[in-house]
Amino acid sequence: MLPKSSYGMTVQNCVHPSDWNRLKSFIEERANFKCECCDDKGPLDAHERWSYNEEEKTQKLMRIIAICKPCHETTHMGLAQINGREEAAFDRLMQVRKMDKPTALKHLEDATKVKSRRDDIEWKQDFSILTDSGIRLVENIESKKRKFSEDESTSMRSSLLGNLSAQLGIYKPSIAPVLQQQTTPSQLETKKLTIKN
To answer: Residue 67, Cβ neighbours under 10 Å: how many?
Structure first.
């Protein structure tokens, strides 16, 4: 559930290319080459877990997990919508999290409220978990952010859950297209990465 000021701020975009492959290999190996959400094996992505300090307007990278493509799509529901895959992502959410439709819609609604509040903040990213482990960042990280116009952001927010609700026979208007797996305290625990050269 990234706030709009952080769109495009993926670790892959921000880590120096010479460090990316070894970082991704470390993440996959740590997860025993399985998705940390569903335990499926297969092609894995790296997905960021962030903590947010609204007073300091800081978004701190806390962990990077190995996640399969279908589960990763579910964590980025707005992007799934843009790609015409919101229904598949929603179905995956229900399957992996063992939720019924009303519970999954409530989950999206709750995540939307948090995202809406965070969208009003210009966040400063903290990648110290990486830099403290010797991982180099690219220069000019700000250029990696993906910019959406206000119209695009509003359109995404208002249509995603409305579309899903209509397809599912449930009506909940104006809920933003966001989803984030609930993060347990252990997933947010900052640990020094020990990455092999």
So the answer is: 24
* Percent over 90 (pLDDT), the chain: 51
pLDDT digits (tens, 9 = 90+) for 150-168: 444 444 444 455 555 554 4
Cβ contacts of 82 within 8 Å, gap of 6 or more: 156
Residues 84, 195: Cα–Cα separation, whole Å? 37
pTM: 0.71
CB burial class (10 A; 0-12, 13-18, 19+) of residue 32?
Answer: exposed
Exposed/middle/buried for residue 119 (C-beta within 10 Å: 0-12, 13-18, 19+): middle
Which range (11-25, 65-79, 182-196) has the least confidence? 182-196
Question: Tokens 């110290």 identify what position?
Answer: 128
Spell out the alpha helix ranges (H) of the chain. Answer: 11-14, 17-30, 69-75, 77-82, 86-97, 101-119, 128-131, 150-168, 185-188
Entry field: residues in the chain: 197
